[in-house]
Amino acid sequence: MPDQLLYAMEVTLNGLMAGVLYALVALGFVLIFKASGIFNFAQGVMALFAAATLVGIMDGQVPFSHLINAILGTKVHHFGWHIPAIAGILMAIVVMVFLAWAVQYFVMRHLVNQEPIILFMATIGLAYFLEGFSDLMWGSEIKKLDVGLPQGINIWIDETTYGWFGYGFFIDNLDIVATIIAALLVVALVAFSQYTKQGRAMRAVADDHQAALSVGISLNFIWVLVWSLAGFVALVAGIVWGTKSGVQFSLSLIALKALPVLMLGGFTSIPGAIIGGLIIGVGEKLFEFAIGPLVGGATENWFAYVLALIFLVFRPQGLFGEKIIERV
Amino acid sequence: MFYREAGDFSTTYAQDSQTFPIRFDRYRYYAVMALAFLVVPFVINDYWANAILLPFLIYAIAAIGLNILTGYCGQVSLGTGGFMAVGAYACYKLMTAFPEVNILFHVILAGGVTALVGVLFGLPSLRIKGFYLAVATLAAQFFLVWLFNRVPWFYNYSASGQINAPERTVFGIEVTGPNTEAWATYLFCLVFCAGSAIIARNLTRGTLGRTWMAIRDMDIAAEIIGVNPLRAKLSAFAISSFFVGLSGALFFAVYLGAVEVGEVFGINKSFLVLFMIIIGGLGSIFGAFAGAAFLVVLPVVLKLVGVDMMGWATDIVAHFQFIIIGLMIVAFLILEPHGLAQLSRLAKEKMRLWPFPH
User: Fold this and answer.
1) Which residue of B has its CA nearest to A108?
2) Averaged pLDDT for residues B157-179
3) Are the beta carbons of A124 and B334 separated by less than 8 Å?
């Protein structure tokens, strides 16, 4: 088989893996959007905050240590204990649930019935707040996150493909694990929203706020639930991305990667988020591989957006979005 | 007592439709203009010009531009940074290609080029709406920044990838380059800023502004009563981008002098200008000024208080700045969605009735 084709196949596979990771972030958006009509720009920063919190808890960092030191003149930085990953993750989930409650109580409760674009801008403000808060709480340096996920080249795939084509594919173990996690997460979320009482209530709220209220569903509870779920998805995304490239500011930018995925797949569809993620992942990797060298490289920054933009002009609601019906 | 329309009779149609119908407002406006043009240039120094006044004037132009698009026409744009970059690079290419032409024309032409690019990226707005469009404008942001970063023609093949403003004069006085004086750059920006504000104010209360507002309030209804959405949206994109391009050109040529596109015109710039109009007030020219002033002064004040008075490290103060800006945005959206401009409107209402409560 010619080399170019093999490279293209490897790039495609890596693109699929990257696409799964984008889809993972995009899922958090879809969840909140479906249940409350809020387009949550802060999802990426939530992933950053969740991952930083997890590292902080596991390493026993003192929260706000920089601020405490600056005010009191002390030199605290660590409690000096290490917490196993599973306990750390549980505690981080508690923190994310608390964050969900705070967002609902202090912000979203007051913005009921506002236009979607106002809510969108409010979440941009929330993103700024969380970004500063996260840095202030845990420090802004790059942190290493290790919860025991395998990393490095997958030997089995490398050897098998070498046996087939005489050329070993480089596939990261972490990407494979991430794919499995994402698949499990999707199955769990779909099962939750289809078969549990809370899931049904969630869909009822998404359908019609007032009707849901009138049959005795607590809006406040559902919204806290939804934001907690989004926080949980953010934590998972934060763990995977944090293991991959360290917990740092750029983690919050994955939200910007997820946006075109959403536009492509439609804001309201979980399968859409996944297929959109795969299309964008493969598309941008192949484009960079084929066209990138001709135009100076680094096309990954914008390719997804331009693809989504062109796509939207022909199908404004995305691949799987609900048909937009407007009335005067 | 003094803030009254009583006794101030209009005898012509022009008088009746003037921008400031109340005499006190009119005189205050003249006083502010006189202060800005005749007093400030004589007392200004480099610190005030570079830390507060220049960024304020330049951001005010950008905020006016974005306010036309978002506040008046209802199309949220997150591509302001990219369009400012278009203005900056257009100005740079014109300055280096036609050194004998006055820089005044370069800056205006840079606005024109940006208007064309704005129309191009505004085309999808005919099909997609709301935050789909907001996200679509991010395409402009990322693509344009990438373009200026990667295509060497735009930065004249310079080794550093930066663009540097050559020295240019207006009426024999240097306004760009390293040897400028504070008052000259200030006046140069002030002329553009005042001009933009007057043009924008008059556009928004004319036919064009009304069609924009009709589109903003409900585009289908507007279309039914005979507003052409194609013309209204694209003209909003064009005029908004024109002002944003002006501000980008000034930001590069007069204020910074040297620009690395990813750093200066990144997505944070887009958010900054958006925050200015949210805090200042959507759909108000005064709001653009108020918001720009607020967000230019806030970091300076925070630095004064945090670093100089409390002795904290700069990174802690920077984190606080994020927190405070985020909180302000959320608080304004909840408590006063029309921003500082609405607060000033309320104050005026109170003044008209004062000292009687009703």
Assistant:
1) B334
2) 79
3) no
Structure tokens at B63: 């905020």
Which pair of tokens denotes residue B310? Answer: 């409390």
User: What DSSP character marks residue B167?
Assistant: P
Asked if the structure places residue B10 within a domain, the reply is no
Q: Which of A203, A171, A158 is nearest to A16 (CA)?
A: A171
**A residues 182-241 closer than 8 Å to B (CB):** none
Give the amino acid at A270.
I
State how far the Cα of A279 lies from the Cα of A22, in Å rounded to an integer: 10
CA pair distance B178, B182, nearest whole angstrom: 11
What is the Cα B356 distance to its own chain's centre?
38
* CB-facing half-sphere around the CA of A190: CA atoms within 13 A: 11
Q: Would you say A247 and A48 are in contact if contact means Cβ atoms under 8 Å apart?
A: yes
Can you give the pLDDT at residue B335? 85
Q: Are strands B173-174 and B163-164 parallel, antiparallel or unpaired?
A: unpaired
CB B56 within 8 A of CB B276: no
Cβ atoms of A95 and A232 within 8 Å: the answer is: no
Contact list, B150 vs chain A (CB under 8 Å) = 295-298
- Assembly ipTM: 0.81
| Mean pLDDT of successive 10-residue stretches along chain A, which has 328 residues | 73 80 79 75 86 83 73 71 79 88 85 76 88 83 72 70 70 79 82 85 79 86 86 86 77 77 78 83 82 71 81 74 66
Determine, yes or no, domain membership for B277.
no
Upstream peptide bond of B355 is cis (omega within 30 degrees of 0): yes
10 Å CB burial of residue B240 (0-12, 13-18, 19+) is buried
Query: Residue A310 CA to chain centroid, in angstroms?
Result: 24
Q: Are B110 and B236 in contact (CB under 8 A)?
A: no
A270 alpha carbon, distance to own chain's centre: 13
Reported in sequence order, the residue ranges of B282-340 that DSSP labels E, i.e. its strands, are none
Contact A129 B124 (CB under 8 A): no
**Cα-flanking dihedrals φ and ψ of residue B259, to 5°?**
-135, 135
| Cβ contact, residue pair A132, B320, below 8 Å | yes
Cβ within 8 Å, pair B135-A131: no
Q: Choosing among A115, A249, A302, which should be mutated to test the B contact, i.e. which has the most B CBs within 10 A?
A: A302
**Dihedral sign computed on CA atoms, order B316, B322, B325, B331:** negative
CA distance A121 to A21: 25
φ and ψ at residue B169, rounded to 5 degrees? -120, 155
Q: Count of CB atoms within 10 A of residue B337's CB?
A: 16
Q: What are phi and psi of B163, to 5 degrees?
A: -115, 140
Find residue A247's DSSP bridge partners. Answer: A143
At what angle are helices B267-280 and B339-353 packed, to 10 degrees? 20
Return the DSSP state at B228: -
Residue B311 has pLDDT above 80, yes or no: no
- Report CA-CA distances (Å) from B329 to A74, A127, B217, B321: 33, 10, 22, 12
Q: How many CB atoms lie within 10 A of CB A145?
A: 24
Cβ-based neighbours of A205, under 8 Å, separated by 6 or more: A35, A36, A212, A217, A219, A222, A223
Angle between helices A3-36 and A197-207 (to 10 degrees): 80
Instruction: Answer yes or no: do A256 and B138 touch at CB < 8 A.
Output: yes
Which residues span the domain enclosing B223? 30-266
Pick the residue from chain B with its C-alpha nearest to A133.
Answer: B323
Mutate which of B141, B314, B319, B324 to disrupt the A interface (most A C-beta within 10 Å)? B319
Looking at B42-121, which runs of residues are DSSP E strands? none
The sign of the dihedral angle between the CA atoms of A49, A114, A39, B119 is negative
Into how many domains does chain B fold?
A: 1
Is B283 inside any structural domain?
Answer: no
User: Can you read off the two tokens belonging to residue B55?
Assistant: 């960024």
